[in-house]
Automatic annotation (TrEMBL):
Organism from which the protein derives: Tetrahymena thermophila (strain SB210)
Residues making up the signal peptide according to the UniProt record: 1-19
Record flagged with keyword Disulfide bond: yes
Superkingdom assignment: Eukaryota
Alphabetical GO biological process terms: proteolysis
UniProt cross-references to PROSITE patterns, sorted A to Z: THIOL_PROTEASE_CYS, THIOL_PROTEASE_HIS
The organism's taxonomic lineage, starting at the top: Eukaryota, Sar, Alveolata, Ciliophora, Intramacronucleata
Family: Belongs to the peptidase C1 family.
Sample GO molecular function, one term: cysteine-type peptidase activity
Pfam family, one: Peptidase_C1
Record protein name field: Papain family cysteine protease
Length: 332
């Protein structure tokens, strides 16, 4: 960083920041952040607004980290110039749509709805599929509500590894583009969708490689030319909503899970328990990849390795953030 440039911007912006009670320390933090997170602005007003949002988030992070009763810490990251509402709008799915889907899926399949097998608990003490080489590098969905395709692709990647010993990145973009109403699915590109729809689609058409159908983060026309020979899951099942059932399932393979990620934007490390457990809003699809000896869930996200613990989050035991609610696993 050019120190003359920093001094000049401080001199120019100082009156505004003094009014907002922004310290030099925060200003330097902003300069550092903005050099790593390139943004374009429609106007000077927007630029100023984003800076103020950043300062507010920075304060929240500092306040949280200065309280020592927390089991997790927060940090500044790529979401730090977004308000909570914008984050929900641009990155998460709509929880009322998710709820409706789960309700319909559950009532449509009332006879076959997963019932708990927790009596037969053969789960071992800890599981972590990362240590078995079953997971590809963590991805970044960007500002597109395509979490459901990342959850499904990671599930298929790890199953392909477990079954065929082949770890290959699969194409989320194919799922964003092709798992649509024209193919008979209620999924909706960057506006959300369902991992199990991706499994159903892929069982028919196959999922191709990331390399041959790269991610662009907007919905395009489905282009399945020559992809009918990709990986095809044969069967999958819903996991009953108890901790024992999820643990048992994780002994076989990673599991696609739906969670409430409303409060996750600045998670950095530790065991997360910051969801409002009396008001769970399911709005994000991710992948459970294991649990530790204390029963904490290890979860893979799709917000790049800059977020969380190298792209992963640990969730406190039981139904933290709704993790037991609506889960799928490939079985063949
Ligand atoms: C500005 O920040 C200082 C130090 O953090 C604090 O003591 C003071 O009350 C703040 N002033 C306003 C107007 O918020
Ligand atoms: C449930 O069934 C209804 C009526 O048959 C159908 O419109 C809806 O798409 C189904 N929902 C799911 C999630 O399968
Ligand atoms: C519901 O059951 C039908 C038929 O058994 C199956 O094709 C479908 O995948 C199931 N849907 C869910 C959401 O489990
Ligand atoms: C793994 O799968 C990919 C994609 O299907 C294929 O190109 C590659 O040759 C396979 N690797 C091995 C070692 O079989
Ligand atoms: C569709 O995919 C094929 C094969 O990967 C590629 O050559 C072609 O350019 C793609 N078409 C469009 C419109 O993206
Ligand atoms: C949690 O949600 C409940 C129900 O909406 C609400 O009354 C409560 O204030 C929320 N708690 C926190 C800490 O936000
Ligand atoms: C939560 O998980 C812990 C550890 O696995 C267990 O001892 C406890 O009974 C669970 N609590 C509930 C309410 O399920
Ligand atoms: C778990 O599923 C059962 C139905 O199988 C349902 O009655 C119950 O409300 C669910 N519990 C939670 C915490 O989602």
């Amino acid at each position: 960083m050019n120190s003359k440039f920093i001094l000049l911007s401080i001199a120019l912006l100082m009156p505004i920041y003094l009014a907002q009670n922004v310290s030099i320390e925060k200003l330097l933090a902003y300069n550092k952040w903005s050099s790593q997170n390139l943004r374009t602005f429609l106007s000077e007003e927007e630029k100023l607004f984003r800076q103020l949002v950043f300062f507010e988030n920075l304060q929240k992070v500092k306040d949280h980290n200065s309280q020592d009763h927390h089991t997790y810490s927060l940090d500044i990251n790529q979401f730090s110039d977004m308000t909570e509402e914008e984050f929900a709008e641009k990155v998460l799915m709509k929880s009322h749509v998710v709820d409706l889907h789960i309700q319909q899926a559950t009532s449509n399949n009332s006879t076959s709805t997963a019932s708990s097998n927790s009596a037969s608990n053969n789960a071992i003490i800890t599981v972590d599929w990362r240590t078995k080489g079953a997971l590809t590098a963590v991805k970044n969905q960007g500002q597109c509500g395509s979490c459901w395709t990342f959850s499904a692709a990671a599930l298929m990647e790890s199953f392909n590894f477990i079954k065929n010993k082949n770890l290959t990145d699969f194409s989320e973009q194919q799922l964003v583009d092709c798992v649509n109403s024209a193919n008979g699915y209620s999924s909706n590109g960057c506006n959300g969708g369902w991992p199990e729809s991706c499994l159903d689609y892929s069982s028919k058409f196959g999922i191709t490689t990331l390399k041959s159908y790269p991610y662009v983060g907007v919905q395009k026309k489905c282009n399945i030319t020559g992809t009918n020979n990709g990986f095809k899951p044969k069967s999958w099942k819903q996991i009953p909503n108890t901790s024992k059932d999820l643990q048992n399932a994780l002994n076989f393979s990673p599991v696609s899970v739906i969670v409430d990620a409303s409060t996750w934007s600045h998670y950095s490390s530790g065991v997360y328990n910051g969801c409002n457990q009396t008001n769970i809003q399911l709005n994000h699809a991710v992948v459970a990849v294991g649990y530790d000896s204390l029963g904490n869930w290890i979860v893979r996200n799709s917000w790049s390795t800059a977020w969380g613990e190298q792209g992963y989050i640990r969730l406190a035991p039981n139904n933290t953030c709704g993790i037991l609610s609506y889960n799928y696993q490939i079985t063949a």
